[in-house]
Design a protein that fits this description.
Layout lengths: L22 H6 L8 E6 L4 E6 L1 H14 L9 H5 L1 H16 L18 H8 L11 E5 L2 E4 L4 E4 L2 H4 L8 H11 L12 H12 L5 E5 L2 H18 L4 E7 L8 H6 L3 H4 L12 E4 L4 H13 L8 E8 L2 E2 L5 E2 L2 H14 L2 E5 L23 E4 L10 E5 L20 H16 L2 H22 L4 E7 L2 E6 L7 H11 L1 E2 L1 E2 L4 E4 L7 H18 L1
Parallel strand pairs: 5-17, 7-8, 7-9, 9-12, 12-13
Antiparallel strand pairs: 1-2, 3-4, 4-5, 6-14, 10-11, 13-14, 15-16, 16-19, 18-19
Length: about 525
């Protein structure tokens, strides 16, 4: 065993003085303690003059010692018999250390325009996205504007996020007003904005309590933790969560494991495995779900530990999986299987929730009440926020110390959420979603019928609609999205073979017609 630090050598009071009082003390403590004085240190880069304190230098040298396994700062017998060598080594170490703490002036951010933004992305932003070659600089309502002045009709809305469109006056006013008060405080204290949003969410759902966070992935991580703790509290050593093949639950490690798409797992496994405790069934397959629950509840793990169902976690409508609505009978079966197993039914409402289906929550279209459901995206209208909601006993599983989020429920994000909630209630957005959703679906069906060699099934709810691009169409969904962008319409793929339409919830009749016209123009050029 190698202790982190050896015990400090015995020292006399004199050893703490500004200068060592004798040669022995000087040899024994060559670098640990320094008095405050002005020092000029020559480094390979420059000469720096700085004021250093004995405490600061002590910490710096101890950190340097702990970072090196090849050199130790611990005085030894050989050091005491070879004073010049020790002094030389100490000087080298000091020079190396000081070269890392050179004072550096902070530079301001550069000026960025539409002309140089792409180049700066290429040089400085990690390539986790494939981006289309336009730089957007502003927006108003359902339109956004490129750096070249071109106008686009935005049927992406930040991928189902900007529910009220861009530059909504009520949302802008709420966020600006909140910034003039304060934007963040710790969850160690109460704040009125979080209380207001939590009350609205529970008043308008089956939930009893809310946990706030920052994103959909984080909300789903919270749900996964809640399900595991609920199962552990019931004596289950190896809790299992069932999710669907082709699901999508986020990019963090457990949420990614819950995502039933192996392509997203590639490169993130340990010994070929993701986070243990997840099983997958085909979406909407009742018999497969029943069989999987039976197998989990009756088969111990390889070490003989108790294995059991912790939760069934499903999207009411699969978004990234291809815009596939849930089957009411499947979800009602899941509800019964969870109840019979003492487990939880959990719904990922990150994309379909907050009104996009025509109901406030997607599970309301399926005739079930989950124990836990998650929200994000449209909840803040584009301001980052997430929420994990629970009812009944599930609402009391997490206790102080078991889960937390620094920014979760901060006043700024919650003020945005409250503004979205007020706008939805005061402007009958759910009625607009129903009407515009039917208009969009009917228009897409006509285009698909006109171009059957390119387009297939139209599916979805409300203003989350997808149209299948056939395998022999001569293009992928992503390529067709690129074609449509040239016409002035922004769309987004949902997998390789589905074009997704997700306009703001405020979209009007004329804008739906305009989008359909531009989409058909792009399809016609492929015919």
């Amino acid at each position: 065993m190698h202790p982190v630090w050896p015990p400090p050598p015995e020292r006399s009071a004199a050893a703490f003085s500004r200068e060592p009082t004798d040669e022995a003390t000087s040899r024994a403590f060559p670098t640990y303690c320094f008095a405050q004085e002005r020092k000029t240190i020559q480094t390979p880069k420059s000469t720096s003059t700085m004021i250093v304190s004995s405490k600061a230098l002590t910490v710096l040298f101890l950190l340097a010692a702990s970072a090196s396994t090849s050199q130790a700062f611990v005085p030894s017998a050989s050091a005491s018999t070879s004073t010049s060598a020790a002094a030389s080594a100490s000087a080298i170490r000091q020079t190396q250390l000081f070269s890392t703490i050179e004072k550096v002036k902070v530079t301001p951010p550069p000026e960025v325009t539409g002309d140089n933004a792409a180049g700066l992305f290429e040089a400085h932003v990690q390539k986790t996205y494939g981006r289309y070659p336009i730089t957007l600089v502003s927006g108003k309502g359902c339109n956004v504007y490129g750096s070249d002045g071109k106008e686009y009709l935005d049927f992406v809305s930040g991928i189902a996020t900007c529910a009220l469109g861009h530059n909504n006056p009520e949302l802008t006013a709420a966020v600006s007003s909140q910034m003039e008060q304060f934007h963040h405080i710790s969850n160690l204290y109460f704040n009125t904005q979080q209380a207001q949003l939590a009350t609205w969410l529970t008043d308008n759902s089956c939930a009893d309590k809310v946990f706030f966070c920052n994103s959909g992935a984080e909300a789903n991580e919270g749900a996964i933790k809640l399900a595991r703790k609920h199962a552990n509290d019931r004596g289950i050593d190896c809790p299992v969560i069932i999710t669907a093949i082709q699901s999508f639950h986020g990019r963090t490690l457990s949420a990614l494991t819950a995502t039933g798409q192996p392509k997203y797992h590639a490169g993130f496994t340990y010994g070929g495995e993701m986070v243990p405790g997840f099983e997958y069934v085909p979406y909407n397959d009742i018999e497969a779900l029943k069989a999987k629950v039976e197998e989990i509840n009756t088969t111990p793990d390889a070490q003989g530990r108790k294995r059991g169902l912790a939760a069934i976690m499903m999207e009411p409508l699969q978004g990234e999986g291809g815009i596939i609505p849930g089957n009411p009978e499947f979800f009602q079966t899941a509800r019964k299987l969870a109840d019979d197993s003492g487990a939880l039914l959990m719904c990922d409402e990150v994309q379909i929730g907050m009104g996009r289906s025509g109901h406030l929550w997607g599970h309301q279209k399926l005739g079930v009440e989950p124990d836990v459901f998650t929200s994000a995206k449209a909840l803040g209208g584009g301001v980052p926020i997430g929420a994990m909601m629970a009812r009944g006993a599930a609402a009391d599983v997490l206790t102080p110390g078991t889960h937390a989020s620094t920014y979760g429920g901060n006043p700024l994000a919650c003020a945005a959420g409250v503004a979205v909630a007020k706008y939805m209630a005061e402007n009958d957005l759910l009625e607009n979603v129903d009407a515009r959703g039917e208009q969009l679906a009917a228009g897409l069906a006509k285009i698909a019928e006109k171009y059957p060699n390119i387009l297939g099934e139209v599916r979805g709810w409300g203003v989350l609609r997808g149209v299948v691009v056939k395998d022999d169409a001569g293009c992928t969904a992503g390529e067709l999205v690129g074609d449509v962008m040239k016409e002035g319409l922004l769309l987004v793929p949902a997998g390789p073979s589905v074009v997704r339409f997700v306009p703001p919830l405020i979209v009007n009749e004329a804008q739906i017609d305009q989008a359909l016209e531009m989409f058909e123009e792009a399809v016609a050029k492929r015919a």
